[in-house]
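Sanity check. The docking grid for NDP depends on where the pocket ends up, so I'm generating a full predicted complex first rather than guessing from homology. Inputs follow.
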Amino acid sequence: MTQIIDGKKISQEIKDELKEKVAAYKANGKEISLAVILVGNDPASQVYVGNKKKACEYIGIKSLSYELPEETSEEELLKLIDKLNNDPSVNGILVQLPLPGAIDEEKVLNAISPLKDVDGFHPMNVGALCIGKEGFVSCTPAGIIELLKRSGVEIAGKECVVVGRSNIVGKPMSLLLLRENGTVTVAHSKTRDLKEVTKRADILVVAIGKPKFITAEYVKDGAVVIDVGIHRNEDKKLCGDVDYESVAPKCSAITPVPGGVGPMTIAMLMNNCIHSVELNK
Ligand code: NDP
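Predicted complex below; grid placement will be based on this.
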């Protein structure tokens, strides 16, 4: 029978563990705080920021909210980041993406101190992951490793195929699977005969950004399938990059959408906030 990997339940377990850790810090007089910066009025971003603040509240992390108008200049934003970088009471800094067009996203992300970069997007943290040093790891791929481990899926020695090579999902995902001793292949839009590649996978991670792209013929019998994609289909229902109905009966384990990878991202963000206390010691 196919194991449905329950990201909602696992993320709740993680949040409860983190809540205890935060309480222990508080008992020692240490409050953990996350600065959340939102520029503009993008409704999806407002929802994401709201969810992050809610998670902070649940765990006991103080969230400092900076909601800036659409016309905020790059200079003003960089000034705020500099202030937060130098404020010892701030542990983590998060800038919600996307930023309004006039602001250079890369410049802004690179301005965040690598020691407070809880999204794990700063080149120093990406480099640290690459050479196996300590740092912040991008939340979605870090969450996928937790999902696999907590569902009893062994990674060491397995054929792992990651479809997608974005900086926030595909690339860090492949590095993390390698760190866990998987044999890793990264596929992308220029991969020849994608089916032949994905059918080799014991563990298949899909982060393409195309609804229901991966159907049963891409998947080996008994594979573990992790679906990172998130889309709203014609009936306003959420679906992933994997055609769940055709793929699920073939695999040993699969993440649903919603309720799979999605909830893990925020849980790992909270984990990174706590990790920032260790890194800043
Ligand atoms: P990007 O668009 O940045 O990257 C997509 C990747 O998929 C690229 O590397 C691209 O290849 C590859 N790709 C596109 N088409 C094909 C194809 N036909 N065959 C093989 N590879 C292909 O997306 P993200 O990585 O940011 O996100 C992927 C999905 O995950 C999206 O649906 C996004 O919404 C979702 N997501 C979900 C999160 C969560 O918390 N659940 C968090 C982040 C993302 P190439 O490089 O050659 O162009």
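Relevant for the grid: The mean pLDDT is 97.
Also worth noting: Residues 140, 163-166, 168-170, 187-191, 194, 207-210, 228-230, 241, 261-262, 265 surround NDP (CB under 6 Å).
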